[in-house]
Amino acid sequence: MMNDQNKKVAIVTGGGSGIGFAIAEKFANANIQTIIVGRDEKKLQSAKEKAGPNCFIMQCDLSNLTEIPVLIENVVAGFGRIDILVNNAGINMKKDFTEVTDADFQSILTTNLCSVFAISREVVKQMLIQGGGNIINISSMAAQYGLPKVIAYSATKTAIDGMTRAMATELSPKGIRVNAIAPGFIKTDMTAKALDSDPERKSKVFSRTPMGYMGEPADIGDAALFLASDAAKYITGIVLPVDGGNSIGF
Length: 250
Description:
alpha/beta; Rossmann fold; seven-stranded parallel beta sheet; 8 helices; about 45% helix
């Protein structure tokens, strides 16, 4: 850990792979001290090696909500401040509606929504002391329109959009901007798992995406870097689709 007053400090949850890693890599390359958080220390270490010297790791199971205040205390102790929080960590489950158990639903809710609230609350406490900050939530196309067989995931991502707007309204007067990014279909392991086993869904994805191809994780990284920068200093409370037009495609 290091405390370089000349560099901003960012936390990216789920930063060990996929979209989270792409965001963390963009931040680190932009000279932002970037802490990636996740459960798998081996995956985090591998990501750190790829992202370079501005990347740091902290292992934490965010579904265990009691660990979150300690995590944030450790970040502040090691880095002195938190300028940016990216709430990217999330899990999905593809099941028929009637097969989803209460435990299944609660598991997705805890990781995708409750942990986002809990870590945001703890980070905001520090941002208020500093006099400002920036929070970026990762939403989904599942909050833009109805997707079958992902009821719990859809519920959490729709809630993330509402929480983003509510947080922005309350916190922006205090110098904390809050926005969300709604990725379209991006080339990640999670997307491949969902689409490769369902050719019909995969065909539908491409048919309703006007640009005709899937995005790259770096596309989300670029959007996050923009929203975290002074170039977006008058932007708060938005949900930005980065989706090749998928959300407006026919």
